[in-house]
Amino acid sequence: MALGTGISCTQQLPVVTTLNQCLLRGDVILSTEGKQSVLDAMKEWASLTDRMKDALEKRDYSEIPSLLNRNFDLRCEVCADAISRKNRQMVELARKTGASAKFTGSGGAIIGTYEDEKMFGSLVRTLRAFQIDVIKPVIVKNQKDAWK
Question: Known InterPro entries for this protein (predicted)?
């Protein structure tokens, strides 16, 4: 996970707000064709979620990077104006190292995968140069080990 210092979702309207305005309130932000593209994207996000769940359950981790990347790419296709330059830069910098990357929510932090420690080191150095901190989560299998 990477956290951008000084980057927040409040720099621009969060994507969820933009989608709600377009679809739920009937605002005229999008044409009929545009609304359909948002609905199609929502269906694809649901499919990506299902595929991620399946990959995790099967322990088929090879598919995860492309699913994470597609999630963000789809967001860019549908809501490009809702993504700040700094938030987009954080994802692009991570991807330049070979890592996958997507937002964890509405911006300000990303999550992704890397192949090995060499790539992780490159990721840390690249993002640190832009005041972006990288955190490597430690996954524990036993709850009592979580507090060590």
Answer: GHMP_kinase_C_dom, GHMP_kinase_C_sf, Glucuronokinase-like
The CATH number linked to 52 is 3.30.70.890
C-alpha dihedral sign at 38, 39, 43, 45: positive
Total domains in the chain come to: 1
Residue with token string 């991807």: 95
pLDDT at 12: 47
- Calculate mean pLDDT across residues 94-101: 97
Tokens standing for residue 88: 């987009």
- The neighbouring-strand residues paired with 133 are 3
Structure tokens at 91: 């994802």
- Provide the domain limits for residue 48: 2-147
Other beta carbons within 10 angstroms of residue 87's beta carbon come to 23
Provide the token pair at 9: 């979702």
